[in-house]
Structures are given as C-alpha cells and as structure tokens.
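TICKET: design request
STATUS: open
ATTACHED STRUCTURE:
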C-alpha cells in the first residue's frame, strides 16, 4: 500500500493539530480508545502514577483512574497471565512490557494461551489483547533493554506482530490493534520515539494492519525494512538517488501476517531487493522474506537478495552499539552490489 493512499485528509477549515512524536501518538491513541470503549484498560509496571518508563501512558491515570490504568507488580509473568484472563472475559487490555528483553517471562502465556485461545476453543473464546513492547537498540540502554526479538513471535500462529515507524502509523495501527479480536504484539521502536514529529489528527481513524506501506517509489532496487531502520533506508534512498539509482522503500509494518504481495510486486519491477533489519542475521525475519522471494519471485530477480542486519551476537553495550546497527553506508553498499551483479 502506498503511503500516499493512507494519509488522513485534514479539513482546511479546521484548526491544524500540533505535530507530535511517535511516543505521543501512542498516548493519543490509548486515550482515544479508552474514551471510546470502556472495555479498554492499560496495565503494566509503572504505567499509572509515573506514566511509564518512556512516558507512553503519561496523564492516563489522572484521566481514567486506577481501575482503568493499573500499576502491576514487577512481575512480567503475572502481567501476561492477567492480560490473557481479562481478554478472554470480554475486556480489551493493553499491557506494557517495559522493555523488549523483559518479554521472555511472558512467553508461556502469550504462546501457550493467548495465541491458541481461538483454536483451542474452536472459536468460542478469543483473546483481544495488545502487548506494547518498547523495542530495539540505539538508546545506550543496558543488557536486556535493546533486544530485536520480533522473529521469535512471527513464528507463532495466532499472533499478529506489528511495528509502526512513524507517529501517524503508530496512532492508526495501535487503534487497529486494540480493535482486533485476536492478540497483537505491538513493537515500538524506542530509538525513534522522539526522533521526529508529524501531524496526527486525533480522529479515531485506524490504519489497516496486514499491509506493507510503500514510502518511496523506485525502479532500480527495492529496500524492505521495518521499525527504526525505515529512517536509514529513506536516507539511503536519498543518497542512491544522487548517484542516479532509484530505490523503492517499503515499510513492512505488519510482520505477521506478511503482505508479501506488495514486496513481490515491487521486486517484479526493480529486479533487486535489499532487506534491512537490526536483529541478528541468522533466522531473522529477513530470512523469511528472502526465502519467499526465492520461492515465488525467483524469475523476477536479476541479482541475489542482499540482507543488511545486526550481527550474530548480543548487541554490544554503549560504545559499539551504533556500529552494530545497520547504517546508511551499509545499505547503500548493498544496493550498489545488487546493481553490479546484474
């Protein structure tokens, strides 16, 4: 889906809303849906009085009270179990895993219960929950605070896995996730929480899940990415354009289920693909996209698929952190290789 097709139309006679950051768009979406649906509640560590470690829930406790904004113990297993229970009993809980690396104690409830609830009960029960997860590196955080673990959850049937990369998509996709009848893992790239601002009308308009967004049209090479790496890919496309290379940029946005058709259609025109993600290379989600291209788009490719990723190690702390993450230089170099190979 071309991003131009998804932009909200703003009434020129109406007052223009202020531009906001991605984290503010998350707060705005939560507040909107809590006003609109009294089944929606927020829970997690420090989400209430303190407004969350990244301030995503700032002001919600004062507005909705402690029965709708629940401060929980520092116990991720309990948070996940409580969320599943609430969801199966008619509520629409939005839980927060304070950091991506704190998800692992939640896996039993997410994988064994939330993801299987509709299947296990033959549709008698569903699990309409959202797990918000500050995700990824680049903020000089300590161990367990900079994971890029999305591929673990894309392998689980019954889960939706989404990752917005802009304030507008954060707002619209979170609304859609809360309204979804099944569990959604909603990864938030913390490196770009406050990187830039967009005008995001607080109109309650959800964006579609399960689609990729074409952020830039191109004819020579397709750059496929998600999360914080969208920024680097757009910058790489600018640099490539200065060299006369036209790069199309696709934000995957929903990793599971994957909108492969949009990727395949782009590659059918460009003949080349560079997949960019910050998770380790081995068995990262980019490998799934590369495999699908090999299976379904082999005869459209005129060069081998390139992957620009993190390395097969834990993200190094502090001094080497940005060296670990895919850079504009690495993306440009990979794109040039695809041109040289054809």
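STATUS: resolved
RESOLUTION: sequence designed for all positions
ATTACHED SEQUENCE:
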């Amino acid at each position: 889906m071309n991003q131009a097709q998804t932009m909200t139309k703003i009434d020129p006679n109406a007052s223009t809303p202020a531009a906001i950051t991605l984290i503010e768009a998350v707060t705005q979406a939560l507040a909107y849906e809590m006003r609109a649906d009294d089944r929606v509640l927020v829970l997690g560590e420090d989400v209430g009085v303190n407004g969350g470690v990244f301030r995503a829930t700032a002001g919600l406790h004062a507005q909705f009270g402690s029965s709708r904004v629940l401060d929980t113990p520092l116990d991720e297993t309990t948070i996940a179990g409580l969320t599943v229970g609430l969801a199966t009993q008619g509520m629409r809980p939005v839980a927060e895993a304070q950091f991506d690396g704190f998800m692992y104690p939640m896996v039993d409830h997410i994988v064994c219960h939330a993801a299987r609830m509709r299947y296990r009960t033959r549709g008698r029960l569903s699990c309409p929950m959202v797990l918000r997860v500050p995700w990824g590196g680049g903020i000089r955080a300590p161990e367990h605070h900079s994971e890029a673990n999305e591929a673990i959850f894309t392998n689980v049937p019954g889960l939706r896995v989404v990752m917005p990369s802009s304030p507008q998509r954060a707002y619209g996709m979170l609304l859609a996730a809360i309204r979804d009848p099944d569990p959604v893992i909603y990864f938030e790239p913390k490196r770009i929480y406050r990187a830039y601002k967009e005008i995001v009308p607080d109109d309650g308009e959800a964006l579609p899940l399960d689609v990729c967004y074409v952020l830039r049209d191109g004819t020579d090479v397709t750059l496929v990415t998600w999360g914080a790496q969208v920024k680097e890919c757009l910058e790489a496309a600018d640099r490539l354009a200065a060299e006369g290379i036209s790069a199309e940029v696709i934000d995957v946005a929903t990793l599971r289920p994957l909108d492969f058709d949009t990727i395949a259609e782009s590659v059918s025109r460009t003949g080349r693909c560079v997949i960019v993600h910050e998770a380790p290379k081995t068995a990262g989600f980019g490998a799934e996209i590369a495999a699908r291209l090999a299976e379904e788009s082999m005869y459209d490719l005129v060069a081998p698929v390139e992957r620009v990723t993190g390395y097969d190690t834990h993200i190094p702390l502090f001094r080497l952190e940005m060296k670990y993450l895919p850079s504009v230089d690495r993306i440009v170099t990979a794109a040039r290789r695809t041109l040289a190979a054809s």
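CLOSING REMARK: The CA atoms of residues 36 and 204 lie 9 Å apart. DSSP finds twelve helices and 14 strands in the chain.
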